[in-house]
Design brief:
Helices cover 71% and strands 0% of the residues. By secondary structure, the protein is mainly alpha-helical. Helix 1 packs across helix 3 and helix 3 crosses helix 4.
Length: 93
C-alpha cells in the first residue's frame, strides 16, 4: 500500500494485470520472486511514485519520500474493503 492505500494498490494491480499478461513477463528476470511478489514489491510502488510525482509536480525522489511518509494515512483513508462497490466496479471494468 501507498498513500493511495490498499484500495489504490488494488486499482494499480488490476490495471497492470489488464495491461500486461503475466505470461509475457520473463520469469528469469525476476527470480527469485514470483509475479505477485514482483508486482507488489516493485511495480506498484513504481507506478504510485510516478503518479504522485505527476499529480504534485515534484521529482521522483520527492514523490518517493511522500509515498513512504503518507503510507499509514493512505491505509486509513483508502482501505480496500470486501464490500467496496467502487472497487468492485473498477475491477470489473
Amino acid at each position: 500500500p501507498s498513500s493511495f492505500g490498499s484500495k489504490g494498490e488494488h486499482v494499480i494491480v488490476h490495471t497492470l494485470e489488464a495491461m500486461f499478461h503475466t505470461s509475457t513477463i520473463p520469469l528469469d528476470a525476476i527470480r527469485p520472486l514470483n509475479i505477485k511478489k514482483f508486482t507488489h514489491s516493485f511495480l506498484v510502488p513504481y507506478v504510485a511514485t510516478h503518479a504522485i510525482a505527476r499529480q504534485l509536480n515534484v521529482s521522483i525522489t520527492e514523490a518517493h519520500t511522500i509515498l513512504l511518509e503518507s503510507r499509514q494515512t493512505g491505509i486509513l483513508l483508502h482501505p480496500a474493503l470486501d464490500s467496496d462497490e467502487e472497487l468492485d466496479q473498477i475491477c470489473r471494468s
